[in-house]
Write a structure and sequence with these properties.
Blueprint: H1 3-15, H2 20-29, H3 34-46, H4 52-65, H5 70-79, H6 84-95, H7 100-114, H8 120-133, H9 138-146
Helix pairs in contact: 2-3, 4-5, 4-6, 7-8, 7-9, 8-9
Length: about 150
């Protein structure tokens, strides 16, 4: 393995954890050959520095703490090249300790209070749009809107 490929890979991983797909893409954009990239990635996986399962769990925990909805988190993971089966496993494990209904309602109430005094219908639309952008399912977002006071 070329030292410059490994050095570049380690620099990327130093900034933040990466998925295998992300790292391959970053190294490809740097102009390294596919053979060099594959060898480097294989070595990093073998040494435990690159692990999609750990990355997926970490990413979900980080994004749920922000808080975001599962729709958005899943799309982000797909964009990062994570396998669908791995996403589904991590999502199932995370749903035990996360209530999207409660989180959406809390977010909706905070957003509602921060908005200026405008008509209630326009305010509800703004809060609904906010929840949808955060990745909450429409049914969960609508339910949260209905419960606003």
């Amino acid at each position: 393995m070329s030292k410059s490929v490994k050095a570049a890979a380690l620099r990327f991983l130093k900034i933040r954890p990466r998925s295998i797909g992300e790292l391959k893409e970053k190294l490809g954009k740097k102009g390294f050959s596919s053979t060099e990239i594959e060898t480097t990635v294989h070595d990093l996986i073998a040494s435990g520095l690159l692990d999609d399962r750990a990355f997926t769990k970490s990413w979900i925990n980080y994004r749920l703490a922000r808080p975001f909805g599962f729709r958005r988190i899943i799309q982000e993971l797909k964009d990062k090249g994570i396998d669908q089966e791995l996403i589904e496993q991590a999502e199932a494990e995370s749903k035990d300790r996360y209530s999207p209904q409660k989180v959406a309602l809390d977010l909706a109430q905070r957003r509602w209070q921060r908005l200026p005094d405008i008509g209630p219908e326009k305010k509800k639309k703004m809060v609904l749009d906010f929840l949808l952008r955060r990745g909450f399912d429409a049914s969960i977002a609508l339910n949260a809107i209905k419960r606003l006071k």
